[in-house]
Every structure is written in structure tokens, then in C-alpha cells.
Amino acid sequence: LLLAVFLIPNLYGSAMAHLSVALFRAQSSSNRLWDSARIRAYGRTLNIAFPAPEAVLRIPKVNIEVPVLEGTDDLTLNRAAGHVAGTALPGHTGNIAITGHRDGFFRGLKDLTPGDVIQLDAPGHTDRYTVRSIRIVSPSDTSVLAPTQESTLTLITCYPFYFIGAAPQRYIVQASLIAPSQLASSTATYPSG
Fold first, then answer.
1. Which of 40, 57, 71, 122 is most buried, taking the most CB atoms under 10 A from its CB?
2. Nearest to 55 by CA among 31, 88, 24, 29
């Protein structure tokens, strides 16, 4: 009887954890790439109240759609992508830096290529960026956070993507704002004939 009292809750908890991981992965094609520990960390944040997001980051090519919250602490990054303090705010000119976990929301960054489009929706404002460079730097290289005169979006995650333990490098995606006239010409439709 004592053994049953101990085993039943543990087995039930383990089964429910596996079911939660499976359900989360089934909800979205982008979630299937998440590490199971990251999914559990995300689940633990669901009962915590967060302020309204500063923006929503959308990258259709790699199925990323994630709210952007202020901060880069673990709790924030388990729930969303984080805006790096001291960089330009979404919707403003300058270098907007956003970070996310490589085994969670930002896993899909590995499939981006120069020229891909990234959308950043801030309240009352939508900006589209085109990826101009992807590079790998050391964690001490903070030059990617430097202010810029032009509107730049910098996405940061750890690298390598499937490294076990604390990843030794950072994967940097930098994108330039698509001017409204460029956006209009790139989305124009032409009559057939």
C-alpha cells in the first residue's frame, strides 16, 4: 500500500509531463523543435502575470511568432523573447536588440538566410526588416548591441543550436528596415497577360 501511494503520483506526474510536451509540440509546427526542458519551463510561466508585450516578432519563413517583453532574465525568456535594455525600442529608429532561447522560441533562426523578411508589430506600428547578415560571435562581443543611425533589428541567441550545456557562442541575425517604398514595390501585384 505504501509503495502504491508513492508510485501512483510519480507515475501519473511523469505521464502528464510527457503528455504536456506532446500537446505543446502538436500545437504549432515551430514548437516541435523545442527542447522538452524548455517546454516545461514555458509551462511554469503560464500562471505568472506579465506586462503587455512591447511588440510581436513574426518570421513566417521559420514559423516564429513570439511576444517581445522587456528584459532578458530566465523567467522572461521562458515565456517570450526579450528586448535588451539600452537598445532602441520596437517602433523607434536605431538598433533594436531582441534575444531568445536557442532551444525554444529562437530555434528556427538556424534556418534564416539573408533576404528573409522579419516583421515586428508594436502597438499601432508595423515594421518589416530584411535579413542582411548572420554571424557567430563570442559572448563578450557586445558590438552587435551598438547604437545605429539606421533602423536595425538584431536577434541574438546562443550557439550551437543543439549544444548540450551552456553554449559557448552567440548567433546573431541583423536585419535592415525595409523602407515603405521598397515594401510597396516588393508586395505589388502585376496583371497577368
1. 57
2. 88
Residues in the chain: 193
Q: Which three cell numbers stand for residue 144?
A: 552587435
| Active site residues per annotation | 101, 158
Grid cell locating 142: 557586445
Whole-angstrom distance between the N-terminal and C-terminal Cα of the chain?
Answer: 80
Place of cell 528586448: 83
Residue with cell string 532574465: 73
pLDDT digits (tens, 9 = 90+) for 143-187: 999 999 999 999 999 999 888 888 999 999 999 999 764 444 444
Alpha carbons 168 and 104: distance in angstroms, whole number: 17
Residues 43 and 13 sit within 8 Å (Cβ to Cβ): no
Contact present, 127 and 152 (Cβ < 8 Å): no
CB 119 within 8 A of CB 64: no
Given CA atoms 13, 19, 25, 27 in this order, what sign does their dihedral have?
negative
Round to whole Å and give the CA distance between 176 and 132. 7
